[in-house]
């Protein structure tokens, strides 16, 4: 029964065959899980969801569409997993909500009754589903931030058990060594008692999207550049040049553009360890925040 329920959410993976990034559904589901776990709320309301989830969509979403919670709020109900319920409402010709009506009536939505029943019988399913959604849709460096922003606190045991089985510690050692234990973007190489600190082995193509634990799918990045890379503020093109998203604004946005855009990364010592073009292309297409179509 538990497995069945989790399987029904598999169809909403962010990285579809077409490569279109759509984190809207997982983010709204994580918010709904937090409401259920913290408040016992089996229904979420449109106005509250808009307040919390819209800013999340701006941080973690793609910029190909104007981010609004209205899309996942209604479209989850069309998912073939049939796990979502929404109150009766007026539909636009494209099947979307009338946002003005959703706000005025403070429309309700939530998990379907049989899914709620499964959560009542086995409350640990809430954590397991949350971990699946995070793991399949977002790089690990962003998990804690997303959980904090939706207000979801997970049981440590479940969280660690799922994440631990997927990590290969040799990946970190191999990537850091290949890059002379320095950040490929800024050359940061601080050592504490001889060991590198705040330096990570980042996956270029996410593990859960099929990115392997091998050096050509890795970059040694300092903690700051790792997070900016996973957020799509930075990417590396197949000529190994850094690209900075033009969505960053303000003084620091300009500084980032001036100091990094078009600059070469620090490459590994051996060319067989160089980042592979297929992974760089995946990152640029799925994670990098490129110029928007609208918004
Ligand atoms: Zn760095």
UniProtKB/TrEMBL annotation:
Q: Check the record and name the InterPro entries matching this protein.
A: DNA-SBD_ScoMcrA, HNH_nuc, PT_DNA_restrict
Keyword Nuclease in record: yes
Can you give the residue ranges of the HNH nuclease domain?
183-237
Q: CDD domains annotated for this entry?
A: HNHc
| One term of GO molecular function | endonuclease activity
User: Pfam families attached here?
Assistant: DNA-SBD_ScoMcrA, HNH_2
Superkingdom classification of source: Bacteria
Keyword list, A-Z: Endonuclease, Hydrolase, Nuclease
ScoMcrA-like DNA sulfur-binding domain span: 3-153
Q: Under what name is this protein listed?
A: Putative restriction endonuclease
Q: Which organism is it from?
A: Chelatococcus composti
**Lineage of this protein's species?**
Bacteria, Pseudomonadati, Pseudomonadota, Alphaproteobacteria, Hyphomicrobiales
